[in-house]
Amino acid sequence: MEHIPQDHPRAESLRIRQKIIDGLHHNMVVEAGLIAHGRGEAFDYLIGEKTNQNAIDTMKIAVAMLLTANHPILSINGNVAALCSEDMVKLSEITRAQLEINLFYGKPGRIEAITNELRSAGATDILGTRPFEESIINDLSSNRRYVDPNGIKLADVVLVPLEDGDRTEALKKEGKVVITIDLNPLSRTAQQADVTIVDNIIRVIPKMCEIAQTYKEQIEHHRLSLQDLEMQISKFSNTMNLERSLQIISTYLESKVMCDKN
Ligand code: ATP
Question: Does ligand 1 lie within 6 Å of residue 15's CB atom?
Fold first, then answer.
């Protein structure tokens, strides 16, 4: 890894960026992934590069969905693997949602590189480790149409972070409940998903692990039931969530304009 000075004002952002660059060098991330990351960075600026209460409330709904699902799946692409493999493995262990590798660009050796990264992060059970020509998601022409017959194909709830709109739309048409993590509340994915967490995946997955752990302990001690979680889910509106996310951006920008005037 390149040396990033501790006192650099944007050290944290540079460290995250370096993870993506390392991911490119290790054949996990593709060039287009660098551009997607840059788009994410730009939107992170607009929310002040921190997690807000609306995002936390939405993460709680996402965790509730994973815990109450019959067959939940966490979909892993190159950027996700490069940025947060360990936390994804942890989330998978806590929620019992299986990990499935699903890629847009099927470069030789990429699935193996991501598999190795997940294994080093502690994963033992990984789906999507070979192309499945026989199992497809309809209405998709890219490589991502091939899914694991024991994973996304059977899933009722799928977490697809850092994705594009086509895939979300196709998964919805197959009857899946789609949860996404996307810093851009205006992206097609953000707009089409059932639950959109508008925050940086780097901050989201550790927080979701914390929430999932708390819910599980509460369920074990009979202080929370699956019915309570289902009730929370039924009250959620993604339209309102996205409206609040846009409002947060707008308020943040207004506060900056006010600062500049003073
Ligand atoms: P769509 O088709 O949904 O409109 P897109 O064309 O922007 O999306 P991609 O280029 O695949 O799709 O980008 C993936 C999305 O992931 C972008 O909206 C980007 O803002 C978001 N993103 C990138 N990095 C992160 C991150 N670290 N955390 C959360 N979201 C991110």
Answer: no
